[in-house]
Amino acid sequence: MLNIVVCVKAVPDPKEACNIKIDPATKTLLRCDVPMVVNALDKNAIEVALQLKEKTEVRITVLSMGPPEAGNIVKECLALGADRGILLSDPAFGGADTFATAFTLARGIEKTGACDVILCGMASSDGSTEWVGPQVATFLKLPVVTMVKEIVASDGPWWKIKASIDGGYRLMQVKLPAVFTVTRDVNKPRTLSFSGIIKARKKEIEHWGIDDLGVSSESVGLKGSPTIVSRLNTTESKREVEFIKGTREEKAEFLVHKLIGTGLL
Amino acid sequence: MVEQENKIGPVWVIAEQIDCRLLSVSTQLIGQARKLADQLNTSAETILLGDDIEKQTQQLIAAGADRVYLGNAPELAFYHPETYTEIIVNLTGEYRPEIILIGSTAMGRELAPLVAARLKTGLTAHCIDLVLDEDRNLEQRIPAYGGLLSIICPQRRPQMATVAGGVFAAPEPDEARSGDIIEVRVPDTVSDRIKTLEVVRDEPQGVSLESADIVVAGGAGAGDLDGWKKIIDLANTLKGALGSTRPAVDEGWTELSTMIGQSGKMVNPQLYIGVGLSGEQQHLVGVVEARVMVAINNDGRSPVFDQVDFGIVDDCREFVPVLIQKIKAYQEKKVTC
């Protein structure tokens, strides 16, 4: 049996994330109650696990770190077909940068027991950092392949993987256990089914705090984070917009004239 | 002796080559490392790993490096995560750099977090500026929430950051500069649990985004693939390059290679037209010093209009075909004149 852990992150809904703004006066974040959803690429990671489960015996554990509200997204992953859902949640975990997050997730993965494959989305939509996968691998002393676009062979202990590089791909051979971060090219994630939601109702999420992981408070959250935000600044635009008005035809006509005027057409 | 102990460590750049060709982001970063090193009164140094790459060392020195750590061996020809990490971690232990900068390339995005985790230090992704703050910490600036976040790594060293190509200008090469070269040995302890069997690169197609004079970028406002095709048409009509935002890539309308912004490509066009996008900082920081910027968006209150020269409030799906018509009419007229 293949034990797979999928790391997922609750992120502000990207469709509404532009409503999160910096308050120019206080330099703090105005969140405006943007709902949290599963990070898009993490759904591709879950889909990799679900497709393997259709072919072979697989146990899928979904692991997330976040505030108690992130339990909802773990629950959603259970409804998609994961077998076990774990939320690492503790006030001590708050304020973690990617280093402390990866450390905490790695300790969580160790606690889940023997594990063959760890899957993550390549990046998070909110931070756009891509560090958690490779750093989880480092803490677990495992090999990692980032930006996986295709799993060519997944039978046996050596997996064959196509991973994106600038303007192409590299074909890799990797020995399990290993960590993979996936791009959206790897598959098309399924959507929630009604029967999945019904089945997931019976499944309980496990909540693990700092004592469950047996780590010191110095190594997690804000205290365990090498980086801190030192400043939050608003940016000022150097441009002043001229709105082009009129009917659709007129607007198109005026815009073409403006562009001719700048010598760009 | 005391003076030596207090001396601030060097500023490092992890350089990168593809088929023995040095990437432009590497020399751009050496230019910035040179500035930071001068302010810190230390040296700018670079690591270059590959095979048959002795000639490239002079390029790195001409760009401003005082020293090149050169790993030149067949097994280093292509990036290998564990071998490269091992070499850099070992060199870091020996030479104690203050700062390490890496390009936000496919290699850099994997290698940087591996090195940072091994060194138990911080790493900031895809910075758009790097300056020293009043405590001489590296202030690593990234766009977020319509503003700029400054990240510092106050307690641990080295301070690490990735930066996309095009964020910093390439320094004027100074062929008269000299520097020393330290040869790096390939470690013999690296495991073989991960192997690169093949590297395939596509032939580049059309106008490259980074060098295009006209860029038409589309966002989620395209609505669907049909709407997206109209944006492609506009780019083609203008003989420009097509760009995109992350939501458009996430929708599957376009390839990741068209994404402009902090974690994508940096463009430097004469004319930028943003279609159906809201002007997120993560996207617009990728548009460096465009001469003229235009936005088309159906919401007049969209923040994108604060950042452009000309604004059109309209449904891009309806407006773009009309605009294409008008442009074509002008182009035909121009030919016949």
Question: How is this structure best summarized?
Answer:
With 265 residues, chain A is of the alpha/beta class.
Query: Which segments of chain B are poorly predicted (pLDDT under 50) over 5 or more consecutive residues?
Result: none
Task: Name the strands of the widest sheet of chain B in spatial order.
Answer: 7-11-6-1-4-5-12
Quaternary form: heterodimer
Integer average pLDDT of chain A? 92
Decide which structural class fits the backbone of chain B.
alpha/beta
N- to C-terminal distance of chain A:
62 Å
Low-confidence stretches of chain A: none
Strand content of chain A: 25-35%
Q: Number of helical runs of chain A? A: 7
DSSP strand (E) fraction of chain B? Answer: 25-35%
Query: What is the β-strand count of chain B?
Result: 18
- H and E string of chain A: EEEEEHEHEHEHEEEEHEHEEH
CATH homologous superfamily placement of the largest domain in chain B:
HUPs
Overall CATH architecture of the largest domain in chain B: 3-Layer(aba) Sandwich
Strand tally of chain A: 15
Helix count of chain B equals 9
Rg of chain B: 22 Å
CATH architecture grouping of chain A: 3-Layer(aba) Sandwich
Highest CATH level, the class of chain A = Alpha Beta
Largest sheet of chain B: 7 strands, parallel
Descriptive report:
- The complex is a heterodimer of chains A (265) and B (337).
- Chain A has a single domain (2-219), classed as HUPs (Rossmann fold).
- Chain A is built from 7 helices and 15 strands.
- Chain A has helices spanning 40-55, 71-80, 98-111, 132-139, 194-201, 210-213, 248-261, and strands at 2-8, 10-12, 21-22, 29-30, 36-38, 58-65, 84-88, 117-121, 144-153, 158-165, 168-175, 178-182, 205-208, 228-234, 242-243.
- In chain A, the strands form 3 sheets. In chain A, strands 11-10-9-12-8-1-6-7-13 form a 9-stranded mixed sheet, with helices on both faces. A two-stranded antiparallel ribbon of chain A has the order 2-5.
- Chain A is globular and about 65 Å long.
- Chain B has 337 residues and is an alpha/beta fold.
- Chain B folds into 2 domains: 8-183, 3-Layer(aba) Sandwich (Rossmann fold), CATH 3.40.50.620; 209-336, 3-Layer(aba) Sandwich (Rossmann fold), CATH 3.40.50.1220.
- In chain B, strand 4 (44-50), helix 3 and strand 5 form a beta-alpha-beta unit.
- The mean pLDDT of chain B is 92.
- At the A-B interface, strand 3, helix 3, helix 4, strand 9 and strand 10 of A face helix 5, strand 7, strand 10, strand 13 and helix 7 of B.
- Strand 14 (228-234) of chain A pairs antiparallel with strand 10 of chain B.
